[in-house]
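Notes, p. 3: input format for complexes.
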Amino acid sequence: MAEEIEEAEVELEARLEDQETFEPPESFVEQANVTDESIYEEFEEEWPQCWEQAADLLEWDEPYDTVLEDEEAPFYEWFTGGELNASYNCLDRHVEDGAKNRAAIKWEGELGETRTYTYGDLLNEVEAFAAALRDLGVEEDDVVTLYMPMIPELPIAMLACARIGAPHSVVFAGFSAEALATRMNSADSEYLVTCDGYYRRGDALNHKEKTDKGLRQVDHDVTSIVVDRLGDELTHFLGENAYDYDDLVTEHEGASVEPVSRDAEDMLFLMYTSGTTGKPKGVKHTTGGYLSYATWTSHAVLDIEPEDTYWCSADIGWITGHSYIVYGPLALGTTTVMYEGTPDYPERDRFWEIVENHRVDIFYTAPTAIRAFMKWGAEYPERHDLSSLRLLGTVGEPINPRAWKWYYKYIGNEECPIVDTWWQTETGGMMVTTLPGVCTMKPGSAGPPLPGVDARIVDAAGEEVEPGEAGYLTVQKPWPGMLRTLYDNDERFISEYWQEYSDEDADEWVYFPEDGAKIDGDGYVTVLGRVDDVINVSGHRLGTMEVESAIVGVSGVAEAAVVGGDHDLKGEAVYAYVILEDGQEPTDAMRERIVDGVVDAIGPIARPEEVVFTPELPKTRSGKIMRRLLEDIASGNELGNTSTLRNPEIVDEIAQRVGDD
Ligand code: WTA
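Output follows (661 residues plus WTA):
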């Protein structure tokens, strides 16, 4: 791990060369939700009571007794005794406040069709679907899996689940059949909402076929509901134990479903994410803490106001979409834009066309998208009037200063602050970023930890490092949006994330996100990247072990090592080094089978950039694969010391093979 950090440090030097700073524009500060820098001190002094400010953004059916319960640390509990319903907070209360006719979701399909749901419409459909789910037998605490692309029925299903107290588990639609089955089996989920298909670059994709294949691998009975997205474009058969979404909604039209009062600590949803080991982890988020935190950060960092039109271009299949397309924005009663497709369809100005057409005020995207926009050139944003924009955000991976400045200039017209937000599936919401109405911006550095977030950089012994030195990012105090555990696996929750330090006064639990970072003299954190075996492909987390086990599952493969190599657009790309069984030929057909094996097991996002056949992997004398060398080879870096290897000669041979094929 230390080596990982060292290497990242070199990259960083390049990144922060000629550090420039930018002040938030006056026009932004004048109207910002948070403008007083004393908030940092106030949250520190009043911690954990400060988090009442987050809880106060919600309506509670039953007030909470205690802000933070730490008896069973690290199984912290937030807002204990409180009761609330997430769907009530995202819908009913706005309708009651007179916002029935305000747009809640503005959706654009890839082919240009649009749908607008007002808060009133959304509430009606959520109630109808919630009634249908109940009729089908869904009870409180049953996990409902949602395997859908970016169509309005996805947030509707999420909110319908939340309404009746059934946690949802959204599986990214780009994941494979096998990935769906693994998640459904792991969560014992007996209900599934899916769709017939959707559009990608103008083509109708068959999603139902993939779903059915997945369902055949689920080891219990499943009741499914199918949204008809494609109509005549793709006919589908419902099959056994399956229902049509529209039929159900029509049948239950006008139903009134009381939102169930959930305990603050009751699970709102599960979200599977990749870790170091092969099996994805089911991250558990709660109703009170998570929703308060997503809403608070949407207010303080994204500066969302009810009258805004806000657009986050992530997919709801990932945590960013959960917190910052659905829960945070809707809890604040704003208009959230949803786009089904890709940024370059039908043309490379699609995003800017959406910003112009909807007069988007706030735009939140990923560095991988910005790198693509840069490559395509300024002519595309220049075709459109982007003057409605007030704030820009990024998430998912480090953004280099060049991309930051491009975003600032060509999208924000040097008039919008940028928030570079560091956080994770596990943190539920943003943790390290500037407050846009308060802080100076430093391109390349995410910013200081948010008020009330105790993020520090430590060395291997857990001691804080000096400013400028690289170390491990840690969070030393709990926060409301934190994951509570891993589904059905408390032990793994502790071993993956927490370390206990004892001194005379108390035992302290420290959270390790598995990222390397640096802090500067002003307390700004620069995130260097993962220090575990997780790679970040276009802002999507992939476990190298998951990919390796998919490859080893292909017949004829003996061993595989997967690493991330630098990639201009994706940030990192998957490189697979593969040893074949004796007698197997390293043919293109074999390579294809390996790639297909990965796509089948995980999905196209995990598709290896290169499959390199090799007779051996570089190993230390104790038999450990030297991943760092493989990463250097993949990234085209100079190769470091190989003298500690048992088989140093293999390194050059592998390096020769990369890019040869
Ligand atoms: C990385 C996405 C640098 C980081 C919300 C983290 C970032 C992982 C940033 C979580 C950022 C996310 N700067 N790195 N602004 N945001 N990361 O769970 O490595 O999909 O641990 O959550 O993405 O990915 P996840």
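The pocket of WTA is lined by residues 273, 318-320, 395-398, 420-425, 446, 513, 515, 527, 529-530, 536, 541 (CB under 6 Å).
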